[in-house]
């Protein structure tokens, strides 16, 4: 039996022993009473009774343990031309002072703090400062518009908000403060205070009495000590798209999270303490939480925080420059970034301009890694290219090729096998296990391992309904796929209305809610159609109310603007088409799947339940008229 198999079996047969061993990598203020508290199924808690501080484990522990002068954080920002490094000691000191400033805003243990920031080191420091105080952070991605931010403010009810004057997207400076002010204006739960980081690229007006200058507050603050919390206390809330416009507040606890993430960096990514690990994502996504900030620091590695894009900052060689310059051993990004690079540098000429001799492995996640992109990356880079599968909810990978245990053969199109701790099964609609090779719902047998969500923020019922009700005893991933004869997991598609746009998760239902609010729109459907760069992009089909005399193009343009204003540029919603009718089943269900296949140029069959087959001809003509025949990826 190989090391992978041995480890997976031990985690299944003796989960408490397995995770108790893994928990040795973490320093506890008080040990746990029970490794797994299973007294209240389907709610399970890990390390109940234990106490720790996540910031202590990410910073102070390493300062005390001999890593004080090792680089903890490298900030590399091609958009500002800055590169800066912090040792573990420097980062600990900065975070302790920032925590003092945040405490000065009245924030204490259990209070929520919302973080709305671009990819600057202060964003990571803000997360760690909250963890230091035992406060619960909720980071909101910068590409969301004010109403989305307001929804999250109202759900989390933060005592304070930490933000910056602007973000920089390629060549463009995006002022953040007007979005923040608008969101606070819309929200019912007003925060008492905001700490604003002024960036020279666009300074912001501060509102007296509410806003404080970040640097001044930090300079005046006294360093704050780490506040121990229960292992089961929340570390953060991260909102992610649900099936409606109301996002789900995924909760992460302190103890299970620290244990699982430290384990994962060593055994999945194969990274040793002291090595440089880089994830090109954003702190606003789970990938950024887990693998820009927490896992590398918990494990004593060096992390890179990159404020730039795969292309255009300044060119498609940016990633290779960063890998060579900082000695990155293992790199993690989304397949869409590689598609962007491949499009600009198909022969990999820019790759060969850099010394990548220390680079060991590339990990891809966030969306399906399409085999041509994986094959291109393997050929160009000459290192293992590992597709791995996970979700905001799980916090760390469900399926991967665990390089730190044993490299298994790579199969293109598969995220390899279930990671130790995850018992993945394919179920039919009645919840019966399916045979190898058969496509069904991918589900994980309860209890989920440490680090996965214990619940949704103040919404136990929604947690149960969303994830546990469909298959009793299992967590439903909402992904469909198969497990082959070799135990390899192939993730195919979502079973709900979530789409993946450039590795960003969006709800088509949420976009439909925005379109339906347009006064001229009677009904609408949003489809995620194939896109050769972003994987999927949303398009909207609109049926106008009877008697609307305004030109359809005007309404369509307004609809596009509305989605940008209400959800944000991250939705990449650029196409709305006005049609006469939408195809429906006889019971009135809109045939979104059939329309998507038509838009993607795939084979499709006339649904037997369709109300009026002629409508599909009209839709086909409208899609063709808009030039929608995207290249298949
Ligand atoms: N703040 C403000 N606006 C943002 C933003 C942020 N943090 N992030 C993205 N946006 C804006 C972009 O500027 C763009 O605006 P536009 O419509 O005015 O051009 C829009 O949101 C869409 O952004 P994106 O989907 O990222 O597309 P892009 O065309 O700017 O770049 C890629 C395409 C492939 C280069 C880019 O998506 C990328 O680097 N993806 C990596 C994926 C990734 O990190 N995923 C995280 C999960 S692993
Ligand atoms: P997010 O919560 O934003 O991380 O998105 C999670 C979703 O992205 C999953 O449910 C999948 O649909 C998709 N996803 C993530 N990683 C992969 C992968 N390696 N292969 C296929 N789909 C993936």
What does this molecule look like?
There is one protein chain. This protein has 633 residues and is an alpha/beta fold. It folds into two domains: 3-308 and 388-481, 3-Layer(aba) Sandwich (Rossmann fold), CATH 3.40.50.12780; 502-625, 2-Layer Sandwich (GMP Synthetase, Chain A, domain 3). It is built from 18 helices and 31 strands. The strands form ten sheets. The chain has a seven-stranded mixed sheet with strand order 5-4-17-16-18-19-20, with helices on both faces. Strands 7-6-8-11-12 form a five-stranded parallel sheet. Strands 23-24-25-26 form a four-stranded antiparallel sheet. Strand 4 (71-77) and strand 5 form a beta hairpin. Helix 9 (255-267) packs across helix 10 (286-298) and helix 12 (335-344) crosses helix 13 (371-381). The site of coenzyme A has 25 residues, from strand 9 and helix 12.
Gross morphology is globular
DSSP summary: helix tally: 18
End-to-end separation in angstroms reads 37 Å
Q: What is the level 1 CATH name of the largest domain?
A: Alpha Beta
What is the residue-averaged pLDDT? Answer: 96
CATH topology assignment of the largest domain: Rossmann fold
Spans of at least 5 consecutive residues with low confidence: none
Strand segment tally: 31
Radius of gyration: 24 Å
Q: How would you sum up the major sheet?
A: 7 strands, mixed
At the fourth level of CATH, the homologous superfamily of the largest domain is ANL, N-terminal domain
Q: Portion of residues in helices?
A: 25-40%
């Amino acid at each position: 039996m190989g090391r992978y198999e041995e480890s997976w079996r031990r985690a299944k047969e003796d989960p408490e022993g397995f995770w108790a061993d893994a928990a040795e990598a973490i320093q506890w203020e008080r040990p746990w009473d029970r490794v797994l508290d299973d007294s209240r199924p389907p709610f399970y808690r890990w390390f109940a009774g234990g106490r720790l501080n996540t910031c202590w484990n990410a910073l102070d522990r390493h300062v005390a343990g001999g890593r004080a002068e090792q680089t903890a954080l490298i900030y590399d920002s091609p958009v500002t031309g800055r590169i800066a490094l912090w040792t573990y000691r420097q980062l600990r000191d900065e975070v302790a002072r920032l925590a003092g400033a945040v405490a000065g805003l009245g924030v204490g243990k259990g209070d929520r703090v919302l973080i709305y920031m671009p990819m600057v080191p202060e964003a990571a420091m803000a997360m760690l400062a909250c963890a230091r105080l035992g406060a619960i952070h909720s980071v909101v991605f910068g590409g969301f518009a004010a109403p989305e931010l307001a929804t999250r403010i109202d759900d989390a009810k933060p005592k304070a908000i930490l933000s910056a004057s602007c973000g920089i997207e390629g060549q463009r400076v995006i002022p953040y403060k007007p979005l923040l002010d608008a969101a606070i204006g819309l929200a019912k739960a007003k925060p008492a205070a905001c700490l604003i980081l002024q960036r020279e690229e666009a300074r912001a007006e501060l509102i007296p009495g509410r806003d404080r200058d970040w640097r001044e507050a930090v300079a005046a603050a006294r360093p704050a000590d780490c506040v121990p919390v229960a292992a089961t206390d929340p570390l953060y809330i991260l909102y992610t798209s649900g099936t409606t416009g109301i996002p789900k507040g995924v909760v992460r606890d302190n103890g299970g999270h620290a244990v699982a993430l430290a384990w994962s960096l060593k055994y999945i990514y194969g990274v040793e303490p002291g090595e440089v690990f880089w994830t090109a994502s954003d702190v606003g996504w789970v990938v950024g939480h887990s693998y820009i900030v927490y896992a590398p620091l918990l494990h004593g590695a060096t992390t890179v925080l990159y404020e730039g894009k795969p292309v255009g900052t300044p060119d498609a060689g940016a990633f290779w420059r960063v890998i060579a310059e900082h000695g990155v051993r293992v790199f993690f990004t989304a397949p869409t970034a590689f598609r962007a690079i491949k499009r600009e540098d198909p022969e990999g000429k820019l790759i060969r301009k850099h010394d990548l001799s220390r680079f060991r492995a590339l990990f891809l996640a966030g969306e399906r890694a399409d085999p041509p992109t994986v094959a291109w990356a393997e050929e160009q880079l000459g290192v293992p290219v590992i597709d791995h599968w996970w979700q905001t909810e799980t916090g760390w990978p469900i399926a991967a090729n665990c390089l730190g245990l044993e490299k298994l053969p790579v199969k293109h199109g598969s995220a390899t096998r279930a990671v130790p701790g995850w018992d993945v099964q394919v179920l039919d609609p009645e919840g019966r296990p399916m045979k190898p090779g058969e496509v069904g719902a991918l589900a994980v047998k309860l209890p989920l391992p440490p680090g996965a969500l214990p619940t949704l923020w103040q919404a136990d019922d929604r947690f149960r309904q969303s994830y546990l009700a469909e298959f009793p005893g299992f967590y439903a991933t909402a992904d469909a796929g198969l497990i082959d004869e070799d135990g390899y997991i192939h993730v195919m598609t979502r079973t709900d209305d979530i789409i993946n746009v450039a590795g960003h998760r969006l709800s088509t239902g949420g976009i439909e809610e925005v379109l339906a609010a347009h006064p001229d729109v009677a009904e609408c459907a949003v489809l995620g159609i194939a896109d050769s760069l972003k994987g999927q992009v949303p398009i909207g089909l609109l049926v106008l109310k009877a008697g609307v005399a305004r030109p359809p193009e005007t309404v369509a343009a307004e609809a596009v603007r509305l989605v940008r204003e209400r959800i944000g540029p991250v939705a990449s919603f650029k196409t709305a088409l006005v049609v006469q009718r939408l195809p429906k089943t006889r019971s009135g269900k809109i045939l979104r799947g059939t329309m998507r296949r038509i838009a993607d140029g795939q084979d499709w069959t006339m649904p037997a339940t369709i109300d009026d087959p002629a409508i599909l001809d009209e839709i086909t003509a409208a899609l063709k008229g808009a030039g929608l025949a995207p290249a298949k990826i």
